[in-house]
Amino acid sequence: MLHAPVVGPRPKKRSKPEEAGVSRRQEAKFKDVRIFLVERKMGRSRRSFLTQLARSKGFIVEDALSDTVTHVVSEDSQSSSLWAWLKGRSLTDLSAVKVLDVSWFTDSMREGRPVPVETKHLIQDILPEAPKPAPVNKVSQYACQRRTTTENNNRIFTDAFEVLAEHYEFNDLQGRCLAFRRAASVLKSLPWAVRCVEATQDLPCLGEHTTAIMKEILQHGRSFEVEKILSDERCRTLKLFTSVFGVGPKTAEKWHRRGLRSFSDVLAEPGIQLNRMQQSGFLHYGDISRAVSRAEARAVGNIIDEAVHVITPNAILALTGGFRRGKEFGHDVDFIVTTAELGKEKSLLINIIDILKKQGLLLFSDYQASTFDISKLPSHRFEAMDHFAKCFLILRLEASLVEGGLQRAEGDSRDWRAVRVDLVSPPVDRYAYTLLGWTGSRMFERDLRRFARMERQMLLDNHALYDKTKKEFLTATTEKDIFDHLGLEYIEPWQRNA
Ligand code: CTP
Ligand code: MN
Ligand code: MN
């Protein structure tokens, strides 16, 4: 409010502003200064009183706010609302206008001339708060924005979470299952070990239940809830059955409901028809449930490499899956095989299978022909199988081919073992998407897709990336291109162990 005596007391009587103004108006003395008085907060009568006063001293006071105004004077101390109002007036260049507190006006009246504008007179726009720089260790809710190596500093928690996740998966509670997998993934990304739950309060994806489990483990060294599940007969049986190649949770559940509790129960049960994959799964159970080493993976790579180069000199072969992420052991070995000549990849897998069979190395093969349709949009789902030609194999791996020898069970004197191998064969122009999709981890892939859809309005899968806003497919020849399209920092394969 204005208290300075210079402008005198407020007029007691309401005088007609126009008349008063006109009657007392002086010839304009200061042509460069064109004042506009903001009525908001000031009030109508006070505004007309100040207008008359200024005009009587030779100032130009405009009745309307237009581009000719140079000095806007306001009694509104709420600069944000004043500026919001000003911005709504559609002036050509608001930055050319001085927005001033009434103190500039009263100073000018006292001096009888426009006083130079000082900082204290300015009513400044409150700039939108600059986005807070993320604290250095802020952890993203998206696995594709975290760097997760194979070094897990929180295994005691993540192992427990995995038991719970599997338990919920067996009970068809997918939401809870995912919650525990997400929580485990966040903890895996930490370069430090959690020592108290308070340290995790700024982390995403950790809820009441996961925190309670962590507390239990921190206090007692174990979780009773997890132990209960581990000793639960149904859970144990389902876990045993699903460890067989070709047996999913549904089949395991079916067998359990029939009262079957062990492999010998299943194999002795008269009514049970095992499919080809399950038969091989039982036949090679010991071998394929034992981890594959990096040296074994390399030896398998050599076998596949030799086979594809018999077929075409333009072959492209890449190790993918867990071994590409730097894991020392895997449950299988994953490869992408294609050729530089677009279209020639169609017969590639069939030919490779044929060669492996002739070499006597093929113990099992399930070939799935391509159903890839180039015109189709990528899947909306966060977890969806791709449509490229692929095969799930069990190969015979000779000990002599493996540097340092085979991973063998105790007492096993054979000179070979069975190894699970996956091959996928995309057209070469889909190579980058396939490589990104098959490198995993599953949680990393899931979050790449979720990030693309939720944060970028894009659809990503193993085939393509589609921009829904631009309505176009985005091309990529490297994984880096895809991260760039998504506006994501590049994450190295060995940092994708989410
Ligand atoms: N994958 C896929 N489509 C399939 C099979 C696998 O897209 N039909 C992808 C998975 O999403 C995963 C990657 O291929 O990211 C590797 O799958 P898998 O071998 O099951 O897992 P790994 O991460 O390699 O783990 P492991 O070391 O145990 O083999
Ligand atoms: Mn794998
Ligand atoms: Mn695999």
Descriptive report:
This protein has 498 residues and is α/β, with parallel strands linked by helices. It has 4 domains: 19-121, BRCT domain (Rossmann fold), CATH 3.40.50.10190; 136-229, DNA polymerase, domain 1 (Orthogonal Bundle); 232-283, Orthogonal Bundle (DNA polymerase, domain 1); 292-486, Beta Polymerase, domain 2. Helix content is 39%, strand content 14%. It has a 5-stranded mixed β-sheet with strand order 6-8-11-10-9, sandwiched between helices. α9 (233-242) crosses α10 and α14 (294-311) packs across α16 (348-358). It is elongated, with a radius of gyration of 37 Å. Residues 15-23 have low confidence and may be disordered. One manganese (II) ion (MN) binds next to loops.
State the separation between the terminal residues, measured CA to CA.
61 Å
How many E strands? 14
The mean pLDDT is 93
Number of domains: 4
Query: Total helix count?
Result: 19
Low-confidence stretches: 15-23
Bulk shape: elongated
Task: Report the β-strand fraction as a percent range.
Answer: 5-15%
GO biological process, one term: DNA modification
Subcellular location: Nucleus
Family: Belongs to the DNA polymerase type-X family.
Binding site for Mg(2+): 332, 334, 422
